[in-house]
Amino acid sequence: MGSVFQLVGPHQVVQLFGVKLVGVNVENGKKLLFSLVFIAFVMLLGRLLRWLAHRQAWDHAGKRFAFWTHQGISIAVTIVLIVGLVSLWFDNPATLTTAAGMVTAGLAFALQKVVTAFAGYLVILRGKTFTVGDRITMGGIRGDVIALSFLQTVIMEMGEPAQGDAADPVWVQARQYTGRMVRVTNAVIFDKPVYNYTREFPYIWEEMRIPVPFNADRKRAERILLDVARRHTVKIAELGEEALRVLERRYVLKRSELDPQIYWRLTDNWIEMTVRFLVPDAGIRTIKSTMSHDILDEFDRAGISIASGTYEVVGMPPIKVQMLASNGNAAPDLPVENAPAENAGIRA
Predict the structure, then answer these.
(1) Could you read off the pLDDT of 163-202 as tens digits, one per residue?
(2) All domains of the chain, ordered by start, with CATH?
(3) Closest Cα partner for 240 from 222, 229, 255?
């Protein structure tokens, strides 16, 4: 056994069958064992702190606090691990400097996207771009942020009012969950804009376009649209007033109307009345659906119809009918004259 396994030299280097194993000695073995114990202790401590923070997350504000606490704990655990392991394995500053230079060069060349994603994570934390629970559009994906890691942001995807990308269509044509959780790299914030629907001002302006015939009671139609919009958004406008004042104090922002507004646009076939109103960042589809029901009911009571495209055919080309006789021979052509154009009008 002594000829197979030996500890030689002042550093007790391991030797197998007379061959020295570089870097395998008693001292490094002790460092490895201590490193494993150290890593396990720090990770368990981090889990315990996250669990304690999660227990305090009873409401929305508590969940946000728990989220940022988790991020702080993750960063602290990472720093402690790096500093502890570097202090354990590198007792010579010159060796540490050389190793750090080599690692930095390797990361810059081989892990460019990873480094960029981590830099994006730091920007998100420092710049307050978004937080957990915010409704954002990031990398072409719209939804609610449910998790954030060093490299990726996890978004609960929502549908789009317009048709999605043909390669990966979004089948839900409204701002409601699709059920897919999408992971987007944090590096996207350096290349594409991030749209935040809730960070500073948790309301958005929405519009509904109603085509009204020219011969309808236009003034009454306008009053109906305004009354329905006010009925469903007056409380929202009152809440949004304070949020808008805070936004104006913080930024150079022009005042915008919070009360419902009506805008007219003339087209070839009808008057397009657009009602503009304020809604919260969530539940928009429900509000618009209820408003649509009320608008149709009020229009029916007022005798106002919804305009639609119509087409009138005012003439047709001559038609010639050829019939076969009983003996199979062709009968003489029978011309069929059209009715006068004014009598042949067809509306669709």
Answers:
(1) 444 445 677 877 888 888 999 999 999 989 999 988 777 8
(2) 21-110 (no CATH), 115-163+172-199 (2.30.30.60), 203-302 (3.30.70.100)
(3) 255
